[in-house]
Amino acid sequence: MNVYLFEFIGTAMLILLGNGVVANVLLKNTYGFNAGLIVITFGWAIGVFVGVFISADASGAHLNPAVTLGLATAGKFSWQIVPGYILAQVLGAMMGSLLVWLTYKKHYDATEDPDALRSTFCTGPAIDKPLWNFITELIGTFVLVFGVFYIAGGTMGDEPISLGSLDALPVGLLVLGIGLSLGGATGYAINPARDFGPRIMHALLPIKAKGNSNWKYAWIPVLGPITGSIIAALTYLAIGM
Q1: How many domains does the chain have?
Q2: Rounded CA separation 29/25 (Å)
Q3: For the segment 103-112, what is each residue's pLDDT rounded down to a tens digit?
């Protein structure tokens, strides 16, 4: 099976259900309008579960450049195929975001709040303080990647780690916990592809009243998660099993 194809499909499904629940809560005239953060966090957790379950046996279900880089840093994944995984993840995130837009097209047309429209694609800070926003994303991604090492049953050998299908539920619960506990400050991107790919789609799609794509913030949900993942991998290596 083509590992890149399944990283693409898994990430697309993650974003379709994840950004889909955000659209359901934030866009006007939906049945889920104003349902709140709890609904969003559960929707994202289910999106992670479904994306991991679909792609785990074929690609290991990284669905996130931070996970890919963390595993490679720890010697659990080949650096040779890291670029292909990241490209597949970004393209999958773009596809998932496109499907959300198609699903909610008339609700996008009815919504006039540019912040709400942008939030259905990418993240932004509740309080705009770049250093602290960076730290928040770093910490959230550290928890994610460090947890993945142990959920996947990694050992200190050099064999690869794969999130088998049975690990889909605990990973989904891990993301649910991160969202509930750590998601209030920045919207917990914890995934560069999850933010960057949909932000590109926000810039490209013909959305009325969408405003700008806030590219000045875009480095934080990319570099914060990457830094957190590398620290998680180094911590894992340092403390052993």
Answers
A1: 1
A2: 10
A3: 999 999 999 9
